[in-house]
Prior knowledge:
The structure is a homodimer.
Chain A: E1 4-8, H1 23-32, E2 37-41, H2 53-71, E3 74-77, H3 84-90, E4 94-96, H4 101-110, H5 113-122, E5 127-130, H6 132-135, E6 164-169, H7 182-192, E7 197-202, E8 205-210, E9 213-218, E10 222-226, E11 232-234
Parallel strand pairs in A: 1-5, 2-3, 2-4, 4-5, 6-7
Antiparallel strand pairs in A: 1-8, 7-10, 8-9, 10-11
Helix pairs in contact in A: 3-5
Amino acid sequence: MNRNLLLISNSTNASEEYLAWPRSYIKDFLSKHGVTKTLFIPFAGVNLTHDGVEKSFDLYEERVRKIFKELGFGLHSIHRELDVVKAVNDAESIVIGGGNTFYLTSMLQKFGLMEAIRAKISRGIPYVGWSAGSNVACPTMMTTNDMPICEPLSFNCLNVIPFQINPHYLDANPAGHAGETREQRILEYLTVNRDAIVVGLREGDLLTVEGDTMTLTGKRPIRVFRFGKEAQEFQPGENLDFLLKTS
Amino acid sequence: MNRNLLLISNSTNASEEYLAWPRSYIKDFLSKHGVTKTLFIPFAGVNLTHDGVEKSFDLYEERVRKIFKELGFGLHSIHRELDVVKAVNDAESIVIGGGNTFYLTSMLQKFGLMEAIRAKISRGIPYVGWSAGSNVACPTMMTTNDMPICEPLSFNCLNVIPFQINPHYLDANPAGHAGETREQRILEYLTVNRDAIVVGLREGDLLTVEGDTMTLTGKRPIRVFRFGKEAQEFQPGENLDFLLKTS
Lengths: 247, 247
């Protein structure tokens, strides 16, 4: 598939400014592909303000636009468009921000945007996603960490990579807390989805997918889970193309 | 509604033995209602062994049966029954254990057990649930912490209480981690479900519902969330009947 994806685990590392760590990577990626402006999809950001979902999208657009402007790119949000499918069809690049993956998936499905965005990606249009925006690039949204705050039509997503990402992957629970660890949750997923591959993408990491090549950027390894096999870690710089092979 | 429910946040506190903390409460609750044996529903426990879901249910039954035997109650698991609806209809009491809420919900829906269990509960049959087993007592499964490992027919659940429980409620993220806090997730839920009430049930806490009265047992307060209002904390011993009023 002729795809150009920047799939980012998290917008912001603890105690850093919003989108601080990935911004230089976003700049390099969009510049490399000659992008001057981007269509922003804010649908995961339902609660940036308590004044309702629409106001939250306004605020989300403003927050991200400011940063993209500093990086030299124009940005406007799809929630201001009447014909959202046309907005996608006309876009030079697409950026989907983080938040709640269930709400994002639900909105993309409701407006027929899954097919439209997938078609654009397959024509090589650069795509940037972080957190929920990385989750929806997967075959399904099933390895999200988010709370099911609404019911999407299905769990099917863009399916522009053949594996599942678990963003914000972390190794331990808070001290004194007894819920399932992230690894236990992913193993549960694999128990009932045995052919799937899950990539635990730690905070501060991102994946760049260009056609059939994939590279990891960041300070920490990814953790790759398959049913019935030991989890494996891969460092930044190692070849990850094999993870795209089942597509 | 003529209901008798013991809704437990978590089976096991960190560093304790399995079901250690709630077992005396389970014993008192079942004894009070004259129960001698119980039907166990293990469907949330998909990954207790790596030998597949059925083996996992066997192991889950064994683990819980041992403890219930010590408490003086017989227990057998519904996954051994051919006619699962009849098993529910014949049950003297029903116990649903924790694990993955999506898988549990999916199985209960697939086998027509939501209606059957709800009907039993409305006839006063004692019900005990922990973690996922408390989540499915709610109107929907939407405030679970679990990963969507499979797609249920819908998010609708037993609806034998009128509010949502968030089990394993916790206040902070692990140090250095930047994902949404539990409170942020619940506020996202309320933004798109404005009439709902969410009870954050901390580990080591349980709710006893008998008809139209509800009491909290445990060492920590519950945290009650409503759209557009400050979250409120209620201590063990305070009157919680108002939370049942919208039913």
